[in-house]
């Protein structure tokens, strides 16, 4: 139990998911990456992140590096998983503690990203640096198997939403279309959802009803 | 992004939960600890674990240190959470990747533990080394909020079980008694549970039916 010669480094990275229109203007899952400015993997896209320094908490590193690169400051970052496989970095052992968050489209519009940042559709990523493809795949899998879609929808849509908006969240996360009528029926019987009595403004006629969840969802759990 | 002077150490620890009789012979959650043989916290109880070495995978460290101390070799260890608060160790920054597993009573009976190992009831722990009380509390909370009690019961009880045995698992995890008749009713209507057609042997008359889950549960998720 004597402390070993220390050749292991600790890094912190963050996976951000947002719902944004794809090239056919349909909502899809997107995630931001930062171009690497040095070796290894110079020029490749990588998750926002950096080394853990002695005086920062893990989540502070996640929040700081995310802000510096993407301009995003999510109200809530959750620890996702720690990746530490021996062969994941070509320049020595690196243990990466990975955080994740879901952000709304208006948060992205307000953000001022750095020059080296680009958003990619989560189901169509380039060959990322290190094992970052594997990390995003893991995050996607966790998102898709989440029991509480209420939480996901709340993070992406905010407090109130139409049934059609809720369906687009489910479709974007699942990566395939859902039958609109079936979806409406299953949602109508959900005890978690209530009619707010309000409607979506700015729509011509028969404006759709706005709903909200009956409890305060936990953003990423 | 230059690698910082490396003063941060990575450790791996494991929380094991088992269902064992308490002093009134009622099933309760127990977890094993190892007495520290050096400073800091000499003599205090700590989670089984050790330093990450450059040539071992995270889970290998968890499995090895667990085997060396408790004699347990769970078929499945899952990563629980990574604890890295600045102040969690008095002798420098330590990031601990924590694994967990649920084990059956017969696995403990077969195990050959080391001399410095002792099991404690999870809801009545001594003042542990470092932040290990906090780690066990976190693990307990995760266990209690797990959606799938089928998974927990399967890990503790094995393939088949009586309704009464299943109730003791729920009671031990929740830390309080449940109404037997209500529990039986709620379980009887569960689509996840099937009557095996067999009964518990070794009981005098009216031997209780044995049930199993309809799917293969995932031990700690």
From TrEMBL, chains A, B:
The keyword Oxidoreductase does not apply. Residues 7-143 form the Nudix hydrolase domain. Signal peptide: none annotated. Keywords: Hydrolase. It comes from the Bacteria. CDD domains: NUDIX_NadM_like. The keyword Transferase does not apply. One of its GO terms (molecular function) is hydrolase activity. This is NUDIX hydrolase.
């Amino acid at each position: 139990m004597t402390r070993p010669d220390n050749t292991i480094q600790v890094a912190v990275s963050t996976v951000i998911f947002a719902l944004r229109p794809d090239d056919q203007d349909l909502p899809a899952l997107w995630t931001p990456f930062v171009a690497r400015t040095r070796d290894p993997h110079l020029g490749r896209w990588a998750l926002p992140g950096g080394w853990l320094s002695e005086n920062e908490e893990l989540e502070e590193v996640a929040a700081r590096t995310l802000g510096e690169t993407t301009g995003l400051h999510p109200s809530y970052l959750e620890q996702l998983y720690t990746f530490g496989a021996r062969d994941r970095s070509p320049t020595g052992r690196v243990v990466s503690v990975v955080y994740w968050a879901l952000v709304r489209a208006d948060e992205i519009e307000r953000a001022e990203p750095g020059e080296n940042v680009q958003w990619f559709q989560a189901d169509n990523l380039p060959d990322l640096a290190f094992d970052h493809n594997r990390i995003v795949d893991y995050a996607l899998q966790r998102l898709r198997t989440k029991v509480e879609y209420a939480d996901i929808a709340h993070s992406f849509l905010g407090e109130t939403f139409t049934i059609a908006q809720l369906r687009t969240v489910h479709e974007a996360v699942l990566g395939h279309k859902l039958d609109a009528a079936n979806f409406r029926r299953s949602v109508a019987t959900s005890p978690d959802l209530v009619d707010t009595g309000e409607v979506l403004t700015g729509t011509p006629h028969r404006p759709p009803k706005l709903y909200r969840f009956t409890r305060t969802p936990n953003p990423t759990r």
